[in-house]
Amino acid sequence: MLLHIVKDPTSFVHLRTVQGVIYNTYQTACRAMGLLEKDYHWKNTLSEAAFCSSATSLRYLFVITVAFCQVTDSVTLWNKFHENMANDILIQRRRELVSDDVQYDQNIFDEALFELNNAVQLLSGKSMKDFAAGCRWRLPMPANTTNSNLTNSAEYIR
Fold this sequence. Notes:
mainly alpha, two-stranded antiparallel sheet, 10 helices, 2 strands, disordered C terminus
């Protein structure tokens, strides 16, 4: 796309330069030039689903959106909706420990990431690792890889 827009590029760095600022990726340069859509419609879709759907349904919608639509920033979507996508895990943990004092923590979010990977495998036959190779997935890595649920999947990216 940049080759069609940037006049007489002299280098790859020149392609990533917008108004004197050198961007790290071509995608961020495109975004700075206003060539890519923002993810507002995906945020709105997930916001509506978070209001009226289960965490499991929201995870599936997130996977479909990131894997098969033109999402430009999956990390921002994850950061905005990770609590909604991990809500069922929090509730389950509270029931297991018979305590309403349990709050969201990194273990809960790691488990939600593991569940996202399961959804990716179910819907596409691929893992998040496969999508990461194509630069479609940019999600945080689980902080706690010692959790047995997280290490049971050889396909999960580390």
